[in-house]
Amino acid sequence: MTDINEKDFEKIETEDLNYYLLENMKEMTGEESEIRDNTLFIPEYSLSIRPQTAKSDSNMAVINYYLYSENWDREIFECSASMGENRKQALSLAEQGFIFGIMSGIKYMMKNEFFKEIKTEFNGPHSWKMYSSDIVAMGDVPDTINPKEIWGIIENEIPKYLGNQKISYIKVFAAKNKDDITGECRINDEPIKELGELITQYISNWNTKNFGLKKQFFFAVQDDETYIPYPYNEEQIEKFVIETAEMFEKVETEKDLDDMLQNFGDKIGDYDLAEELMGFIPEICAERAFPNINYPEKVIIYMGEDKKLEVNKSQIASYYMIKKAVNHMIDHGHIMKELYHKFISISSAYNVICQVLEKDKVDLTKEEGAVISTAYGFSETYKIR
């Protein structure tokens, strides 16, 4: 971590640490690169890496990394944390975790050293190449003999969560500290509870006594021949969420709500997205408001009266972009914060909570293990993407 001594290093303000992180990362990647505007750019991969120090004290470091390439349809996020004997060592170890973890997989992906090929059938046939990172292991864990051990746990499940993205990234985190187990599987940084339970089962078989963890990343890259680009990016979706909120603010009656869907579809020229925004936003707000309830990843979409489709949220192109925009606007005081409770009031989740409370005198928000499954009623002309 540069040649600065530990005593002087302790005095550096957290917001000024990125310079040192970038210089160190430039050396550690082993790739020809250059520093541009607080970002490390690797020309061979058209890859930009922006580190952001979230925490740095005398023995703990948390670094957020934002990665983007013009060949991707999304930004990749990774958080790397570590403890050390001093501030400098903690930061260095966190950066090593990033370099030897997710960056190893990105290098394999960029060099086309692929893991295997898979096929999916969501809304038409799709072909993918799966890449994997090296396994990062720390502490008291079983020896890593088989590099495919973690993939073998989720291999048959991952295709069920892929839609029509250009790239999806999967993070598996497995940790055990005596009897305390943490098993997590994230797709595009969203925790997938059902996959996390598989990882938890895997960890429960570890015959270890002290703290240990394993972490690995997988990247699904869709072939150009089967990829159908989605017409909107995250910034555009956030703009549509704001417009939805502005129109919803004026809704006073059921008729206003019905008319809003048609009017908003007319305004943006995309009735499929209009239905998704009006359907997803209230449920996203309700899930945020009542976090103790379990909301399965799988949802049901009714298209008119005769057609029914079961999909995972991660497969729907707009869903997690809408969720990210909604959470961002609530957290930062935009119009969504003012309308938060109004959106919750029209959600099906809130309706279920009220019905159970009235009929059975049971408060689902306080019931351990409560589950609410979600179904959306869209028009018969709706087309999923």
Structural commentary:
With 385 residues, the chain is an alpha+beta fold. It folds into three domains: 1-100, Double Stranded RNA Binding Domain, CATH 3.30.160; 106-229, Murine Class I Major Histocompatibility Complex, H2-DB, Chain A, domain 1 (2-Layer Sandwich); 234-378, no CATH class. It is 37% helix and 26% strand. The chain has twelve helices and 15 strands. Strands 6, 7, 8, 9, 10, 11 and 12 form a seven-stranded antiparallel β-sheet that branches. It has a five-stranded antiparallel β-sheet with strand order 1-2-3-4-5. A hairpin with a 2-residue loop joins strand 10 (180-187) and strand 11 (190-191). The longest helix is centred in the last third of the chain and has 19 residues, at 271-289. The protein is globular. The model has no long low-confidence stretch (mean pLDDT 92).
Task: Summarize the topology.
Blueprint: H1 6-9, H2 18-28, E1 34-36, E2 39-42, E3 47-56, E4 60-69, E5 76-83, H3 87-100, H4 102-110, E6 116-120, E7 126-132, E8 136-139, H5 149-154, E9 167-177, E10 180-187, E11 190-191, H6 193-204, E12 212-222, H7 234-248, H8 254-268, H9 271-289, E13 298-303, E14 307-312, H10 319-331, H11 335-345, H12 348-360, E15 375-378
Helix pairs in contact: 2-3, 7-8, 7-10, 7-11, 8-9, 9-10, 9-11, 10-11
Secondary-structure class: alpha+beta
Order of H and E elements: HHEEEEEHHEEEHEEEHEHHHEEHHHE
Write down the domain tally: 3
Biggest sheet overview: 7 strands, antiparallel
Radius of gyration, CA atoms, in whole angstroms: 23 Å
Distance between the termini: 45 Å
The total of helices stands at 12
Helical percent range?
Answer: 25-40%
Low-pLDDT runs: none
**Shape, please?**
globular
Strand content: 25-35%
Instruction: Calculate the mean pLDDT score and round it.
Output: 92
Number of strands: 15
